[in-house]
Specification:
The complex is a heterotrimer. Chain A is of the alpha+beta class. Chain A folds into 2 domains: 3-117, Ubiquitin-like (UB roll), CATH 3.10.20.30; 132-254, Fumarate Reductase Iron-sulfur Protein, Chain B, domain 2 (Orthogonal Bundle). Chain A is built from 10 helices and 8 strands. In chain A, helix 4 packs antiparallel against helix 7 (186-198) and helix 7 (186-198) packs across helix 10. The radius of gyration of chain B is 29 Å and the shape is globular. Chain B contains 13 helices and 3 strands; from the N terminus they run E-E-H-E-H-H-H-H-H-H-H-H-H-H-H-H. Chain B has helices spanning 15-20, 35-40, 54-61, 72-99, 105-115, 118-121, 126-148, 155-168, 171-199, 206-214, 219-244, 251-282, 294-303, and strands at 5-6, 10-11, 33-34. Chain B is mainly alpha-helical. In chain B, helix 4 packs across helix 11 and helix 9 (171-199) crosses helix 11. By secondary structure, chain C is of the alpha/beta class. Chain C has 18 helices and 25 strands. In chain C, helix 3 (83-103) packs across helix 11, helix 13 (466-480) packs parallel to helix 15 (518-542) and helix 14 (487-503) runs antiparallel to helix 15 (518-542). Classes of the chains: A alpha+beta, B mainly alpha, C alpha/beta. Chains in contact: A-B, A-C, B-C. Strand 8 (142-143) of chain A pairs antiparallel with strand 1 of chain B, so a sheet runs across the interface.
Chain lengths: 255, 307, 663
């Protein structure tokens, strides 16, 4: 149902919708806990987001419910979860864009902390270390008193475009390859490599990047299902970036 | 003003290495590796907690040559794509050749004979077809082997990916499942078909092919093969385009083109199959008797060599 | 009892905390960062518009330097800032930007040649110098004389945080994610680390360190309508307050940002107004020029927020079911500008309001935004009353911001303070006398005390609901300690908070898990929050003047004669229902910029008796030294060179101020 349909329906009925929120509950720290779906009913209000829904449930119905929010503004990437089967940022999901029955589940792939809370941070740190996602500066010292090195304004903007990744984990959760192969780098990693490859300040060459992603856990493992591209909350151009990396890395095989 | 300089030219050991040598503790700033060493230190990339092999340590210390990561994954990936592209193009051309039956028995006979070298050498050499078939078999096997690496390798993985595509309801992911299904199916169907063509290439003939389809009762086999081939090939070509970023069109546009092509070849294939079934039905009383156009018959009789 | 020992323990994984840890690692010390969340999720990432540093690359920034930045900062603070610290800050800010550039931050760059901008509703063509092409660009922000705010589109904090966090990984900084400090381990004189709870397993661990740094961010969640992330609950402030020894400075100085969206309270950046956006009322009229003819929409945040509330009170607000609001109009900037330089703003408008800001006006209202107050430190970042305890960033009262922070100075403070305090922490750890053996028995006592507190909550059968107390506290703070304050209302608010504090001793939980348990977390946090709220509310009641963001309707003037001093709150008696207060005077006779009119806002104030004399001295020095370079004049007015760490000394090069090659 579209937003307009829901709104019109509500106005016609002259009352707010009753939402049925079905949440996957499981506490791995409790040996007695078994995964189950639990239903909560809540009355919809104006501009209601899943952030508001979940906090209302916790404050008024079930204080044990676990979930993660930080910025609640779609900036930090904490609140990624499966909303009716698709990974997305719960904080900026308006209920008016959803049907009456809403199913919430934690992101798959990542270590489950409890209910809707998953440990994306731990995986992302591992990815950062594995792919060395920091700028590898060129030879020579930078004197921070001196005028900074120049950079083409367009290149700066392009780097920023790729730098907008918030490491929310949606791309990895949506990735069929990652579901099957836990050591797969995932779109988030490719995005980072593409970002540093673009950066003229980074000294690494394709030869170096090949060491990082030139195998079946890296770019050649990608089956181009591209769910990553479709679910990315920041609309990063993952499809073209992965294709670009594949071409560059494949060229290494011919060289 | 040296005080305000920061050491940008040197980088630390990768963390993985530090963790692997806990007794060394954290190297302080003076023990940093130079830039050059760090670039070659990419060999240390391994998941945290994994042990670095002696070989790697020796290489890093300069006691052995730097080993580069194998280039084979790149080559294999290219090979998978190239074999796929070849097979897809072959399959479409093949479809056109087979569909020549729609223009009449004579047209199909001519094309079959063309591939046997009849119009070049003035005589048919069916083993030429066997050669082509043999090459296609090789490509197919290569493609299958490459593709198998991407297949789920355990029931657990299969269940995971099925559950995933079911929950996600994501078109391109679901299409991949179909690619697995059809690829799996084709491995048997196409192999059987190719074996037959390899061993009896001379049986590619308007009547003999039609007999195979109707009187030998193989039309369900060809129907299944047709569906599998067209779906697999269409999806595969689409996947190739998005995988390599060429042609650089939107996925919506590419998908549209893909479905149009798949639709076209499916229709063409079904009509062709129907045509063979009709011919086979009409020819059911004289099974095994090849078709030869009258103009060729005269020539053949004159020369005194038949099939 | 599990014990982890390290050199530097940093509470908080945002920009300030990570930068401190990197500084310590670079000097060869081990550093552990405790973070409630993965560090890249810290609230630093929400800083959109940019970071102030006087690079002077753009046309509208030519002539900018440390002196101009210093004066803007001190005026912005309404003379509450520590001027030595402000000097250290403005000197280091360009270095911080350039360091981040060398670490990979994708700063937006100057494009040489003509480009069109909107200034005061007019399309203006600016010509950027070709020699500046490719250097870091600056935009306009409130309360500044020059275009000084360096930015990466409108995701500056995000870009800076990711750069810094990646550098932390590169430098092997250990980050213990999803851990929370419950108490500082100290003996009343020296801080030795913290009792830390693992938020996943619930395990309590004693972390012992030579130096402990609080970089835990602000306390925005004391208010119900705030732009702050949900983790900005003032826990760093609370930790310090509960030592009974460390002081919190100027907690009553709370900044309200003019443009939080209604109703979600999410921030849209000051860059919107910096780039030419306007504020409009119910009639679509632009009203700020009427109140502030000089700076209009770009007066400092405290002033703009107050003017907005004033305008709403005069009946010019737009009525909505979420209360009155005003409009932010950025449609005049054009779609291209919005889609390139204000992308996050566009996303926020689309996702939370369902509008396209290139077409429609954005509903905004002043919303709690920043905690100027924090753990009081000296210029090295160390607490004067608890040795070994440091603080930096929003959690600190280093005192860069005084009673009002300028936009773009907070995210700048995080990295600059991180660099400076990080060096001082490394110095501290280098000293042999600071490597005294760790007091394990003391640590055990602290862990046991925290364990007992948790047990009391889980098993004590308390009847109060922590979530209810939390929202009640937020309501009290919003109602009584908001933009306009008044003696009686403040007193009523304090009394209400005291009742809440009492009730917070009787909190119970329905779930009994000692592992990940959101209810338990809220239970132990809310009591600490109420204490911080009391320090804020009562401090506001005691300060009978108006300064910067602290505005008393019953005392509407700035009163330098009585109130040119810093409020220090501490909680020596654990059983007391109020913190104790003392005051730290600011010495006018040493100020480089003696108090005066800010250049915007109210023009009448009560002078400090020393001000005229100091002003004469300053004027005399300036006229005596006419013709000498600005560095010499500054040195004569207020020397600070010896205060900066040696590694951060050095003049900043600019296109207009080239450095000698010999330097």
């Amino acid at each position: 149902m579209s937003a307009i349909d829901n709104n019109t329906a509500r106005q016609n009925a002259g009352q707010n919708r009753q939402l049925s929120i079905n949440i996957l509950r499981y506490d791995p720290s409790d040996p007695a806990s078994r995964p189950r779906m639990q239903e909560y009913r809540i009355e919809e209000s104006d501009s209601m987001t899943l952030f508001i829904v979940l906090n209302e449930i916790r404050e008024h119905q079930d204080p044990t419910l676990q979930f993660d929010f930080v910025c609640r503004a779609g900036i930090c990437g904490s609140s990624a979860m499966m909303v009716n089967g698709r990974p997305q940022l719960a904080c900026r999901t308006l209920t008016r864009d959803l049907p009456n029955v809403i199913t919430l589940a934690p992101l798959p792939f990542f270590e489950l902390i409890g209910d809707l809370s998953v440990n994306t941070g731990k995986w992302m740190r591992g990815m950062s270390e594995r792919l060395q996602v920091w700028l590898h500066a060129k030879e020579g010292e930078t004197d921070i008193c001196r005028i900074e090195e120049r950079m083409d304004p367009d290149i700066a903007e392009q780097i920023y475009e790729l730098d907008r990744c918030i490491e929310c984990g949606c791309c990895v959760a949506a990735c069929g390859t990652a579901q099957m192969r836990k050591d797969f780098v995932g779109a988030v990693g490719f995005g980072k490599i593409a970002r540093f490859r673009l950066d003229p300040r980074d000294a690494r060459t394709d030869d170096d990047y090949y060491e990082l992603i030139g195998d079946d856990t890296g770019v050649f493992g990608c089956m181009s299902l591209l769910a990553c591209h479709d679910v990315c909350p920041k609309s990063l151009p993952l499809q073209t970036q992965i294709a670009f990396l594949r071409r560059k890395m494949a060229a290494q095989g011919l060289g | 003003m040296t005080g305000s300089r920061i050491n940008q030219g040197i980088q630390r050991f990768p963390v993985a290495l530090i963790r692997d040598f806990p007794d060394k503790g954290f190297p302080d700033a003076d023990q940093c590796l130079s830039k050059k060493q760090v670039l070659s230190s990419a060999v240390f990339l391994c998941p945290l907690g994994a042990t670095v092999s002696h070989e790697t340590i020796f290489i890093h210390a300069g006691l052995a040559d730097k080993s580069r990561k194998s280039r084979w994954p790149a080559r294999l990936d290219l090979l998978q794509s190239c074999t796929g592209l070849f097979l897809a193009i072959f399959m479409w051309l093949h479809m056109f050749f087979v569909a020549s039956i729609l223009l009449g028995e004579s047209a199909m006979w001519s094309i079959a004979k063309f591939f046997e070298g009849y119009f070049i050498f003035g005589k048919a050499y069916p083993w030429l077809v066997s050669c082509v078939v043999g090459f296609v078999v090789l490509v197919l096997v290569a493609h299958a082997l490459m593709a198998l690496r991407k297949f789920p390798v355990s029931y657990q993985q299969w269940r995971t990916i099925r559950a995933h595509t079911k929950v996600m309801r994501h078109g391109d992911s679901t299409l991949w499942i179909w690619q697995v299904y059809t690829g799996f199916l084709m491995f048997f169907l196409a192999s059987a078909h190719l074996y037959q063509m390899f061993v009896w290439p001379q049986d590619i003939n308007p009547y003999l092919s039609a007999d195979r389809i109707w009187s030998d009762g193989l039309w369900p086999f060809y129907l299944a093969l047709l569906l599998a081939v067209e779906l697999h090939g269409g999806i595969g070509l689409y996947r190739l385009a998005v995988k390599w970023g060429w042609p650089n069109a939107s996925r919506e546009a590419l998908r549209k083109v893909k479905w149009i092509l798949t639709g076209f070849f499916l229709v063409l294939g079904l009509v062709t199959l129907a045509a063979y079934m009709k011919i086979g039905y009409e020819h059911r009383t004289s099974v095994g008797e090849p078709y030869t156009p009258t103009w060729a018959l005269e020539k053949n009789e004159h020369r005194g060599d038949g099939q | 009892m599990k014990t982890i020992m390290t050199d530097v323990l940093v509470v908080g994984g945002g920009l300030a905390g990570l930068r401190i840890a990197i500084a310590a690692r670079k000097r060869g010390h081990e550093a552990i960062v405790l973070s409630l969340v993965p560090p890249k999720r810290s609230h630093s990432s929400a800083a959109q518009g940019g970071m102030q540093a006087s690079l002077g690359n753009v046309t509208k920034g030519t002539g900018d330097n440390e002196d101009v930045h210093f004066e803007d900062t001190v005026r912005g603070s309404d003379w509450g800032a520590d001027q030595i610290v402000a000097r250290m800050f403005v000197d280091t800010a360009p270095k911080a930007v350039r360091e981040l550039a060398s670490w990979g931050t994708p700063w937006s760059r100057v494009r040489g040649g003509d480009h069109e901008v909107i200034i005061n509703e007019q399309k203006v063509t600016l010509t950027e110098r070709m020699e500046a092409h490719g250097l870091i660009a600056q935009r306009d922000f409130g309360g500044t004389k020059k275009w000084r705010t360096c930015y990466a589109a409108d995701g500056t904090g995000h870009a800076m945080l990711f750069t810094t966090s990646n550098q932390a990984v590169c430098h092997g900084v250990e980050v213990h994610e999803r851990t929370e400090a419950l108490a500082l381990i100290h003996d009343g004189e020296r801080c030795y680390g913290a009792v830390v709870r693992n938020l996943i397993t619930g395990e309590l661990v004693a972390y012992l360190a030579k130096a402990t740094a609080i970089a835990a961010g602000g306390a925005g969640r004391l208010y119900s309508a705030t732009t702050s992330a949900v983790i900005c609950e003032g826990m760093g402030h609370g930790l310090a307050l509960e030592t009974g020894v460390a002081r919190l400075g100027n907690m009553e100085a709370v900044q309200f940002h003019p443009t939080g969206i209604v109703p979600a309270g999410i921030l849209v950046t000051e860059g919107c107004r910096g780039d030419g956006g306007l504020l409009r009322d119910v009639d679509g009229e632009r009203f700020m020029p009427h109140y502030e003819p000089e700076k209009k929409e770009l007066a400092s945040r405290d002033v703009v927020s107050r003017r907005m509330e004033e305008h709403i009170r005069s009946g010019k607000g737009v009525q909505s079911r979420f209360g009155p609001h005003l409009w932010l109009d950025i449609t005049l900037l054009g779609r291209h500008h919005i889609e390139h330089n204000l992308r996050e703003v566009k996303e926020i408008c689309e996702y939370f309001l369902g509008i396209d800001p290139a077409e429609k006006w954005i509903p905004v209202r002043p919303t709690q935004h920043y905690t100027m107050g924090g753990v009081r430190t000296d210029h090295t970042g160390q607490s004067p009353s608890l040795k070994g305890l440091f603080a930096a960033g929003e959690a600190a009262c280093w005192d860069l911001h005084g009673f009002n922070r300028l936009g773009g100075n907070s995210v700048a403070e995080t990295v600059v303070a991180g660099m400076i305090v990080g060096e001082f922490i490394a110095d501290f750890c280098d000293k042999p006398e600071n490597s005294a053996p760790f007091p394990l028995t003391l640590a055990r006592e602290f862990v046991q005390r925290e364990e007992a507190k948790l047990a009391a909550i889980l098993d004590g059968g308390g009847s109060e609901n922590a979530f209810k107390l939390y929202s009640e506290m937020q309501e009290v703070m919003t109602r009584h300690v908001g933009i306009f304050r008044q003696g009686d209302a403040l007193l009523a608010g304090v009394a209400h908070l005291q009742r809440l504090l009492e009730r917070s001793a009787d909190i119970g939980t329905s779930g009994k898990s000692r592992a990940a348990n959101p209810e338990l977390v809220m239970a132990y946090r809310v009591r600490r929050m109420i204490k911080v709220a009391l320090a804020t509310a009562h401090g506001a009641y005691l300060r009978t003047e108006s300064r910067g963001a602290h505005f008393r309707e019953d005392f509407p003037h700035r009163n330098d004669q009585e109130w040119l001093k810093r409020t220090l709150a501490f909680w020596p008696d654990e059983t007391a229902s109020l913190p104790s207060f003392e005051y730290e005077p600011l010495d006018v006779t040493k100020m480089e910029l003696p108090p005066g009119w800010r250049g915007y806002g109210a023009k009448d104030y009560i002078d400090h008796p020393d001000t005229p004399r100091r002003q004469q001295e300053v004027d005399a020095i300036r006229s005596q030294m006419e013709g000498r370079d600005r560095f010499a004049v500054q040195e004569a007015l207020m020397p600070y060179a010896d205060k900066l760490p040696a590694s951060l000394a050095g003049r900043n090069e600019r296109l207009d101020e080239p450095l000698e090659t010999s330097q």
